[in-house]
Amino acid sequence: MGLEIQSFILIGGLFLLLAIGIEIGPAMGIVAGVGLLFFVHQPLDYFARAAFEIMNSFTLTAIPLFIFMGTLYSTTGTVRALFIGGEKILGNLPGGLASAMTIANAIFGAISGSSIAATATFGKICFPEMEKAGYDPKLALGAIAISGTLDVLIPPSVIMIVYGGWQDVSVARLFAGGIIPGIILSIFFIITVTILVMHNPKLAPRTGVKFTTKEKFAVFWDLLPFVVIIALVLGTIFSGVMTPTEAAALGAFLAIILALIYRQMTFRALKESMLTAVNITAMIAFVLFAARMLGQVFQYIGLTDAVAQFMLGLPLGKYSIYAIICVMYIILGCFFDSFSMLILTIPFVTPIMKNLGFDLVWFGIAYVVLAEIGLVTPPFGLGLFVLKGVVPKYEITYIFAGTIPFLVPVCILLVLLVIFPELVLWLPNLLYSK
Q: How far apart are CA 115 and CA 122, in angstroms?
């Protein structure tokens, strides 16, 4: 049986299973099993051995710890202080509440690693406040959905841990590489809100609340505990004092301490945070394993090398090929979650990027930005479903319509990363000399 027929059976089977409603993890597992039995000629007990080898990673241990951090902040409500602080600083801007929520999301991203937790948290906290203030629901929901994606770009980021652990790329370098793009994108989102509201003031009426200079300066004391946690977690990683996994354990401990200080810690909140972290981690682990197994099947039958050779043989420049890959990820992001998309495509894409001379740290950050688009694009945008779960009276398509203006700055950032790769590479190179 030739490569073309084998590839058609595997890829066609995967899309058929997805079309009839099977979840992405089981679908990839079934296709990988078929490939192992009939094309690779491995017994199914190979699954068990491979599962242990794939998941037996100290780096991946950071995933449940960072998720626990985010869910604990969410369930205890301690992150409300971030939104209140952001409102005092940016509340006088056009669309100030949306901008405050963006700043709060950016800070939350630096003490968490889960866009799911961010979207759910700020959907619960911020949308009622913006609705009460007379904000257009489409603008409010769109801003919340797109700002939640900052948590995958601003370190610590779970998806960076998965990418770095699999591709043997320094997670610390990836974390450092995401800081400047994350700050830039946060500013872009605030600018977008301001422009939209200045063009149509009815989208976000002024709240009429004025904050004195003294009140604005007092915000820094309110935010100080979060700044300290960010400095300790990221500082210990960048300085080499701790590995990302050890820093994640420190961050989880500090999250508990902060909840106790704010008197928000309860046994129910702790239990819910732990269970959520376990559930999300189990989902990620299963998808990671299934996609990795399917990737091994593709590699064994020769599809990975064939795709890489085909792309490199095109009479196009390196940036044209990169543009094609970006379009591919934007399309795939409509149907796959960011983890499945990463693990399923990296065996094909990484050899291409290496041969074209792209730095893998730079590409990791570029992928995360592309994954942000996938989080808010239907029909399977995870951020849209999470937000609809929090605000059920609005449909997925309505929420997506609100995110469309914010996709423009995301695309602008992708272009800037190509023109100025040092936006990603400068800080890692500064912290870690080659």
A: 11
